[in-house]
Design brief:
506 residues; mainly alpha; 2 domains; two-stranded antiparallel ribbon
């Protein structure tokens, strides 16, 4: 490849807009990660910025550099200069999930930020290893697990966590929040062009940031001036997560489904890139995201990487291989020098919340649009455990704040907490069960009930441990609860076995 061709691949005008979009997407995830830990769980901000962000940024650096190299290599082989690199960034659902299900609760239990960090690293490392293995069998997984079971929980996360929590942030500072929301609705959801061709995500952040500080200066909402954390923060390999090895078992129901969802997403986005004219190897795309996740975990990162859905959109912008190269440098080098941490510190959550709201809605829409009309019930049924988890988050916050709920609310809150523990795996199984019933797959439906009964006994779903930990059934103090729930799933299996074939579909 000659110099002129390489320049067209890496220095195209379309790469500039695409870079801002991809950079903002990644930065938003980091702002939300740190913001949730600090605002919801009281996690030390400085610790999160200096220990978690550098390794997380390193994973993005590695993944986007490899994807850039893939695009340039394809251009060299084919002689084409219209190849668009696959975008890689932080996975939003699991970033929020790891913060609210793993790191935050562990810190609330131990009040030890280092231990919470170790657990987050351990979960990341397990996810990286799991994704590396599954990358060789990703297509087989999509054939075994029905699409409603795969997409339903993701759609529930989009609505319950990615959409609902950002709405709460918008109303914390509604003037700035509504300004950003208006630009997101106009430029991203409606797909209209902003003046001067400004990327909608960048425009929303900048406009809401200016309005935020103007409103604060006018006394319209309280504000605390941020403390800058600009210093060298090189990610270093560490085996500190070994100290959290005893907690891995507790979080397998979180780590494995989140890893599986990005593998499935990687398969889908590779297909969309192929349809757009860029025939990437599915296995290479999946292995790259798996290695990026594993590297991040081994260097202190706590958010996994994934190929983003928007490859065709970036291609339509005229992006080639430059935008992923710029993102790798900005996120990776910025995270090591402390400049990225400074950006995260200066961006109030309300300025990025509308973008996250858009992402959540888009994920929910895609989870419904990709499923046949007759199987939508399975999708919505699989979302219920996510909603239960959302209820338990705020209910447990109230309990920690010594709120008096009374027996009429404490009982339902306990039930919601049990339903919500292991909600990703639960949602996948619930959605699969309903899909199997609709598809008249008797054996698969009955075996799904049996599997859920077994997982319930060990607390891998519906854990009765207050911390959501897994356990051996004979070591639970009150064994009647998991035995009763496991018995309920077995009763469901018996009902399906007895009813199957007794009547015709209406």
């Amino acid at each position: 490849m000659n110099t002129a061709t390489l320049r067209r691949m890496l220095l195209g005008t379309g790469d500039v807009n695409a870079f801002f979009a991809l950079f903002v997407d990644n930065t938003v995830n980091l702002v939300i990660l740190v913001g949730l830990l600090v605002s919801v769980f009281g996690f030390p901000a400085r610790f999160a910025l200096t220990h978690m962000v550098p390794g997380t940024a390193l994973g993005v650096l590695f993944g986007d550099l490899v994807y850039t190299w893939m695009a340039v290599s394809m251009a060299r082989r084919t002689g084409r200069t219209d190849i668009t690199a696959m975008p890689l960034g932080l996975d939003t659902p699991s970033t929020i999930g790891i913060a609210t299900i793993v790191i935050g609760p562990v810190f609330a239990q131990t009040h030890d930020p280092a231990m919470a960090w170790y657990v987050g690293m351990a979960v990341m490392s397990v996810m990286g290893v799991f994704k590396t293995i599954v990358a060789f069998f990703g297509d087989a997984v999509t054939r075994i697990v029905p699409r409603p079971g795969l997409l339903g929980p993701l759609g529930g996360i989009g609505l319950a966590l990615l959409a609902f929590i950002p709405v709460m942030k918008v109303f914390d500072a509604p003037i700035a929040g509504m300004v950003g929301l208006g630009i997101v609705l106009y430029g991203l959801i409606a797909g209209r062009r902003l003046p001067l061709g400004i990327p909608a995500a960048l425009g929303a952040v900048l406009a809401s940031l200016v309005v935020y500080w103007l409103a604060a200066a006018a006394g319209l909402h309280p504000v605390t001036l941020p403390t800058m954390h600009v210093h060298l923060a090189l990610p270093m390999p560490t085996l500190g997560f070994i100290h959290a090895g005893h907690r891995i078992w507790d979080f397998l129901p979180v780590a494995l489904p989140f890893g599986l969802l990005t593998i499935i997403g990687g398969i889908n986005v590779t297909e969309s890139a192929r349809a757009a004219g860029d025939p990437y190897s599915t296995r290479s795309i999946l292995l790259t995201e798996a290695m990026a996740t594993l590297i991040a975990g081994l260097f202190g990162g706590v958010a996994q990487s994934t190929p983003y859905i928007g490859h065709p959109a970036y291609k339509a912008m005229g992006a080639r291989g430059g935008y992923t190269l710029y993102t790798a440098i900005a996120i990776g080098i910025g995270g090591m020098t402390g400049l990225l941490q400074a950006v995260i510190t200066l961006l109030p959550e309300v300025t990025v919340a509308p973008i996250l709201l858009f992402v959540g809605i888009e994920i929910a829409v895609q989870s419904v649009a990709a499923v046949k009309r007759e199987e939508l019930s399975a999708v919505f049924f699989s979302m219920v455990p996510v909603l239960a988890y959302l209820v338990s988050i705020y209910g447990n916050q109230c309990l920690h704040a010594s709120c008096s709920l009374g027996p009429s609310l404490s009982g339902p809150l306990h039930t919601a907490s049990v339903i919500g523990r292991g909600f990703i795996l639960t949602g996948m199984l619930w959605g699969s069960l309903v899909a199997y019933i609709i598809r008249a797959k008797k054996r698969a439906a009955i075996w799904t009930c049996v599997i859920m009964a077994g997982l319930t006994l060990f607390g891998l779903i519906h854990s009765f441990d207050p911390n959501g930990a897994a356990y051996l059934p004979w070591k639970v103090k009150d064994t009647m609860h998991p035995l009763s729930l496991a018995g309920g799933y077995m009763a469901l299996a018996i009902v399906l076995f007895a009813m199957w074939g007794k009547g015709q579909k209406q």
